[in-house]
Predict the structure of Proteasome subunit beta.
Amino acid sequence: DSHSKFLSEDRVKYENRSLNRRFIFSPLKRAALRKSMRHLTAVSKPTGDTVPLPFPMAHGTTTLAFMFQGGVLAAADTRSSCSGLVACPASQKILPIHSHLVGTTSGTSADCMLWKRILARELRLYQLRHSRRLSTRGAAKLLSHMLHPFKGTELCSAGTTKTQKPDLARLSGPRLFYVCSDGTRLEGMLFSVGSGSPYAYSILDQGVRWGLTVEEATSVAREAVYRATHRDAYSGNFVDVFHITSKGWTRRKREDLKEEYYREKERQRLERKTQHDILRANTSSRHKPS
């Protein structure tokens, strides 16, 4: 019977075979199913014609990560948007995978969080089986292979960052990868992903260098996110900054970008006042009688 057959063969193969038998449809049923699925993605008129959805489900973000002599720094805004609406002003877009690996996410929030949990589970299972952590390159390759079957579905994009333990630093060291939902996997020193990334790159390209201190790197990352959120409507609210070293990741206290905006305005006011004072002093010295 079916129970004895289940006991004599692999459980996964048996369940897959039973599912395939359960969902075998006749040609007429398949045609009806395709027709009903088309109606789920469109709005029907009284005349029977179909029109597209009332608005595109657009979304955006600003995430970045770069390497410097002090490790790897990752930063991101916290605004989750859906078309023209702010769905959540305080979402977390930098997701820790384990103590030495974090991922920045850009795309559909639910998909990004799901793949983060799947990747964390697979890396933990690998560590339990082999008594060591999978390398950053291996983790990025694993995520790339898992995402490739969903190519064209616009699931999510993720940049992953990691530093190895001190005893493995000479073998691997810090690594930075960009992994896209179509399976693309790139390794580099600096990445920025999201709708605000063009504005962030304008700051990162001129400010990032290998010899930065932790304070300087944090300042560059915060300014890059601030400039991006100032120009990109889909990014904003707060900024999260993670610093990853050989001892693991540390998280900086979340900061309100509104405060950064007011600090920038105050700096500009002081600069204008200083320039005005210098100009007035030069003018008065020229007109002073000898």
About this structure: Confidence is low (pLDDT under 50) at residues 1-23, 39-48, 164-170. Helices lie at 2-8, 11-22, 27-40, 109-130, 136-147, 197-207, 214-231, 257-287. The CA atoms of residues 111 and 155 lie 6 Å apart.
